[in-house]
Design goal:
With 697 residues, this protein is mostly beta strands. It has eleven helices and 45 strands. Helix 5 crosses helix 6 and helix 7 crosses helix 11.
Length: 697
């Protein structure tokens, strides 16, 4: 039974949306059917109705087969309703209350790994993040904070709704269609311990990385201390027994990948890379380190030096099972030592000299600039190549060493803003290394430029570099120009592996720019000027983002059977809905506290997201891609000559998709996992699509 109130009746200076009697002596509650009562218990109760008929899935675009969608985990009434429900274990298909919509909060598969079960075959273990799109427009496209509460036919977002919805860990079996969310009752042992371990991170930060070694599955979840210092909680499961073994906390802002490396002597090692980052509002002072697991199947936490000198919150006598094996990445002790930011992607490959190596994409360290001062101790975004992997792998005594291959400062001439750019996915295919960029919307344009040159930032935008809500209305045109000129879609490069050593020695003529910018708008205080890229090259096959400025992230890639698949994140897919179809007349920054916003339509029509939307629409029309300015993420195959062949530009036929976040190879088939801007209705939630070669004609 559900008693439904449209708004919480708490008064706050008359600005909150509540009902009051004429003399303010009694609080009046407004029920969802519009009736006014003096107590919430007097509201009519709606009994569950019959489940809605299933909706036929839309026609699939491209050579793919729909393989799965995440579960319905809640019931949605409105973005500000206290009666919205979340329960991933409930059978919502048969108990959905009348007047509610199905809700799928898992917005994309953040961390994925494959476990080969003797009983069940290959399974996908997946860590998710909930409602990721709900915060993106505010955090990364400059939307006003008053517009963080919005709803339409396919979305329902608010700050409390996002931060209050746990992320989840799933097990999928694509052969049987079975989906299972990990919870206390399904675990054969360790259930109560899992529930307790889950508490510190069950609100916001999600599960970003996962990996398998033997029967053990590791899943990494983000959380922060009260001082905003980053922590990674490493959950360990025995996948064969379906049990929770335990967890350890390590100091670190983020980790993106667990990988098993093949050592030259025939052994293997299980590794992860942690890195310094502020993307989850951490302080950014975490270490950047390669870690090797030194535990065992029976005792995954045995041994390890990872927390020495780092002041972990755990008992210092408690081991964690990981060794630091890479002083060079975070060399803050040597006089000339430098520090790198997080490593987003890293892969093993065979060099042309037949040695095994790593290729790594390091982002700019968060401390490159502080208050307008450049600190060369901290590195900008750069591609790294390791020296040969030691015979028995990396150890405390035989650590990772490497050299730089190619940096963002060798491509983008904008010294003020370019350090906000990161390297995205990378891949090795047919003798070439491919890599792309990631530009995090206004997080790249605003926040990094503002740190590099606060005074020039204010001059160009009218914004306070420390508080973007303080706006000089007389400089709106300047602000718009700044936004457009500092925006970067993803650029894609490749290097012949035969030339990688020459590039590392400084010969950038051997770097191919497949898609990118011939010139970039730069303002060093003397006006905006079109400056050639520092490679001095015209893109071989087309403009950045493959002609779509919304494609800001080369997000995931995989090479299989000679084919290189390249997936993007489209920053604007959800804006078609948000800017024109969503309602944002109320906003809720704290649970139960709702404010009216009579200016929401004007704010929707005039903010940086709208500026970029209109700019992108015009650019795509000029590029002959007007038909592709629609919601839905892009996936392409990059052919032997480096030119992309687009497989889908509309999210596989589901416009709720705004990108391809992960890909897994299961039973010798590729399954592409999508991100989504929709969390309400039958097409919401993350999905998987299987690539079917016979359909690719």
């Amino acid at each position: 039974m559900n008693t439904k109130l449209s708004l919480v009746a708490i008064l706050l200076a008359g600005a909150m949306v509540t009902g009051c009697s004429d003399d303010d002596s009694e609080t009046i509650y407004v029920c969802e059917n519009g009736s006014e009562v003096s107590s919430p218990d007097e509201c009519p109760v709606t009994e569950p109705g019959d489940p809605t008929d299933p909706v036929d899935p839309p026609a699939i675009d491209g050579p793919f087969v729909h393989a799965g969608r995440t579960i319905v985990d809640g019931a949605f009434y409105s973005a500000t309703s206290p009666a919205n429900e979340y329960d991933p274990l409930r059978d919502w298909e048969n108990t959905m209350p009348a007047g509610y919509k199905e809700m799928r909060n898992a917005s994309y598969p953040w961390g994925t790994t494959v476990y080969d079960s003797a009983e069940n075959g290959e399974e996908l273990w997946m860590g998710t993040i909930s409602n990721g799109w709900c915060v993106w427009p505010y955090q990364n496209i400059g939307m006003p904070i008053q517009l963080t509460t919005f709803e339409s036919e396919t979305t329902g977002c608010s700050v409390p709704g996002t931060t209050g919805t746990p992320s989840q860990i799933f097990i999928y079996n694509f052969r049987t269609g079975e989906k299972e969310v990990i919870h206390e009752s399904m675990l054969t042992s360790g259930g109560p311990e899992f529930t307790e371990a889950f508490k510190p991170i069950n609100n916001t930060y999600g599960f970003r990385a996962a990996g398998t070694v033997g029967d053990l599955v590791f899943v990494a979840g983000h959380w922060k201390t009260t001082e905003n210092q980053g922590r990674l909680r490493l959950f360990v499961f025995n996948a064969k027994e379906r049990s929770f073994i335990g967890y350890r906390d390590i100091v670190g802002d983020t980790t993106r990948r667990f990988r098993t490396l093949e050592h030259p002597d025939g052994t293997t090692g299980f590794y992860t890379l942690v890195g310094a980052e502020t993307g989850m509002t951490q302080a950014g002072d975490g270490p950047t380190q390669l870690l090797r697991w030194v535990g065992t199947q029976d005792d995954p936490f045995a041994g390890g030096n990872v927390d020495l000198g780092r002041g972990n919150d755990l008992d210092p006598l408690t081991t964690v099972g990981w060794d630091v094996v890479s002083t060079q990445l975070d060399n803050d002790t040597a006089p000339d030592g430098v520090q790198y930011g997080m490593v987003g992607d890293w892969r093993q490959f065979t060099h042309t000299d037949d040695t095994e190596r790593l290729i790594m994409s390091a982002s700019a360290h968060p401390f490159v600039y502080k208050d307008g001062e450049r600190n060369n101790k901290f590195k900008e975004s750069v591609i790294l190549i390791s020296d040969p992997i030691p015979a028995a792998g990396y150890t405390v005594d035989n650590q990772l060493t490497f050299r730089e291959v190619f940096g963002m400062d060798q491509y983008d001439p904008d010294t003020k803003g370019r350090w906000g750019a990161k390297w995205g996915t990378s891949a090795i295919n047919d003798g070439f290394m491919y890599f792309g960029t990631y530009h995090q919307g206004t997080d790249a344009a605003y926040k990094h430029f503002a740190k590099a040159d606060p005074e020039l930032f204010t001059e160009l935008t009218g914004l306070d570099p420390h508080d973007y809500s303080v706006i000089d209305a007389n400089k709106e045109v300047n602000h718009k120009e700044f936004m457009i000129n500092e925006w970067r879609a993803t650029s894609i490069f490749r290097i012949d592996l035969n030339n990688i050593d020459a590039v590392s020695e400084g010969d950038t003529s051997k770097v191919e720019l497949l898609y990118g910018y011939e010139t970039m708008q730069v303002n060093d205080g003397n006006g905006w000027k079109a400056i050639p890229n520092k490679l001095g090259k015209k893109p071989t096959h087309g403009e950045a983002g493959m002609g779509n400025p919304g494609n800001v992230y080369s997000w995931t890639s995989i090479a299989k059977d000679g084919k290189l698949f390249w997936g993007f994140f489209d920053a604007f897919s959800g804006l078609h809905d948000l800017l024109f179809d969503a309602y944002a007349g109320e906003y809720m920054l704290f649970d139960g506290i709702v404010f009216q916003n009579s200016e929401w339509k004007n704010q929707m029509a005039n903010n940086p997201a709208m500026w970029m939307y209109e700019y992108t629409k015009t650019e795509m029309e000029v590029n002959g891609l007007a038909d592709e300015f629609i919601p839905g993420g892009d996936l392409a195959i990059i052919e032997a000559d480096g030119k992309a062949r687009k497989l889908t530009t509309n999210g596989f036929g589901n416009q709720c998709s705004n990108g391809v976040r992960n890909v897994v190879d299961i039973d010798d088939k590729l399954y592409f996992g999508t991100s989504t801007w929709c969390n309400v209705g039958p097409t919401s939630g993350l999905e998987f699509y299987q690539y079917e070669p016979s359909l690719d004609k």
